[in-house]
């Protein structure tokens, strides 16, 4: 019995040792990515991971343009990103047709009111010299909340006052819509028209890159009816560089973009054929170029007139006129508003003439 109990104790110790010797799995910490709740950011991060770019919690306008699905979403993103593509139909011809439609209807009411007035004047003219409506009925309708509505008449009922009132109310409603459309047309005139070259590039982009069919591109074929809603008209002159096919221009733009950032934002599209650029460095480069060019247009003629004291009066006048012509060409290229164009040219010419009048006269030996 003692031997058997000793054996049982040994077996129990062996089992206990075996249980303790089994390797327990070490707990592993799994990092789960927090949901972004933004489909666009997910696409942008996917594109960044493909090219090994740095991840970020935010995305930019450039990211939206490069990663939007082909079609209308990509077109809207391009119009948002590129000011030159921020163009929409003005429907100018249709607006004028609608205005004419309202004019004809309002004229019919006007002619009918004149007819009623002349008939009442030939009768006794009392209705033309008193309230043109029944006061009690009008107050009763106002109390019911229907004072602003026309009076309903049965087909066999004739009421001169109600007829005139209904005509005036109908005319007021039509005039309200007419003048609202007229003012809208006046505001549309303040927007610049899109050039045919830019609209053609926009149309080709929608066809080649966005793959829009003929039905979807039908509204874009009226090439002279597009308006641009971007106030920076000067930058639009250089924006055609973004969709050029010239290799050396594309290389220059890439080098300019590297000044502001390492490279352009990646795209999640597998067959991206349209080169994308960062807009801010190019804008800064264009503004710097325009500022330096503007200074050169003034400094060069002033320097020649100041340093060359042996010039005759005719030569000085020729330099002033040539500089003014060059400045006028530049102003006509970048300024669409006629008043600002004339004021700018006159101011430039006045500065040169004032400077010229203070120079010593070489013909007099001074």
Report what the structure shows:
The chain has 366 residues and is mainly α. Among the domains are: 92-188; 280-364, no CATH class. Helices cover 61% and strands 2% of the residues. Mean pLDDT is 77; it is low at 1-25 and 27-31.
Descriptive key words:
single chain; 366 residues; mainly alpha; 3 strands; 2% strand; flat; disordered N terminus
> What structural class do you assign from the helix and strand content?
mainly alpha
Which range does the strand content fall in? under 5%
Morphology: flat
Round the mean pLDDT to the nearest integer and report it: 77
**Biggest beta sheet summary:** 3 strands, antiparallel
Total of DSSP H or I helical runs spanning 4+ residues:
13
Strand tally, please?
A: 3
Rounded radius of gyration (Å): 39 Å
Uncertain stretches: 1-25, 27-31
Compressed to H and E, one letter per element, the order equals HHHHEHHHEHEHHHHH
Strand order of the largest sheet: 1-3-2
Share of helical residues? 55-70%
Task: Please report the distance between the alpha carbons of the first and last residues.
Answer: 142 Å
């Amino acid at each position: 019995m003692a031997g058997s109990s000793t054996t049982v104790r040994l077996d129990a110790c062996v089992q206990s040792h075996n249980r303790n010797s089994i390797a327990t799995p070490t707990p592993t910490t799994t990092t789960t990515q927090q949901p972004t709740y933004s489909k666009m950011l997910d696409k942008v991060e996917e594109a960044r991971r493909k090219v090994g770019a740095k991840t970020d919690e935010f995305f930019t306008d450039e990211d939206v343009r490069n990663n939007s699905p082909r079609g209308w979403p990509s077109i809207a993103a391009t119009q948002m990103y590129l000011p030159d593509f921020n163009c929409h139909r003005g429907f100018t011809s249709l607006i004028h047709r609608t205005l004419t439609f309202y004019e004809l209807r309002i004229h019919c009411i006007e002619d009918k009111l004149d007819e009623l007035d002349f008939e009442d004047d030939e009768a006794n003219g009392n209705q033309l010299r008193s309230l043109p409506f029944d006061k009690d009925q009008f107050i009763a309708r106002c109390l019911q909340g229907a004072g602003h509505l026309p009076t309903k008449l049965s087909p066999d009922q004739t009421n001169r006052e109600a007829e005139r009132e209904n005509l005036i109310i109908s005319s007021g409603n039509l005039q309200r819509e007419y003048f609202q459309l007229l003012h809208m047309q006046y505001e549309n005139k303040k927007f610049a028209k899109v050039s045919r070259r830019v609209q053609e590039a926009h149309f080709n982009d929608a066809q080649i890159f966005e793959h829009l069919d003929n039905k979807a591109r039908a509204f874009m074929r009226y090439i002279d009816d597009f308006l641009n809603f971007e106030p920076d008209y000067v930058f639009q002159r250089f924006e055609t560089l973004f969709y050029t096919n010239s290799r050396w221009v594309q290389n220059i733009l890439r080098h300019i973009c590297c000044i502001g950032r390492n490279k352009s934002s990646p795209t999640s599209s597998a067959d991206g054929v349209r080169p994308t650029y960062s807009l801010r460095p190019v804008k800064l480069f264009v503004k710097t170029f325009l500022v330096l060019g503007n200074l050169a247009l003034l400094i060069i003629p002033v320097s020649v007139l100041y340093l060359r004291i042996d010039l005759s009066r005719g030569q000085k006048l020729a330099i002033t006129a040539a500089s003014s012509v060059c400045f006028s060409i530049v102003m006509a290229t970048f300024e669409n508003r006629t008043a600002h164009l004339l004021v700018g040219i006159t101011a430039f010419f006045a500065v040169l003439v004032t400077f010229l009048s203070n120079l010593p006269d070489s013909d007099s030996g001074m």
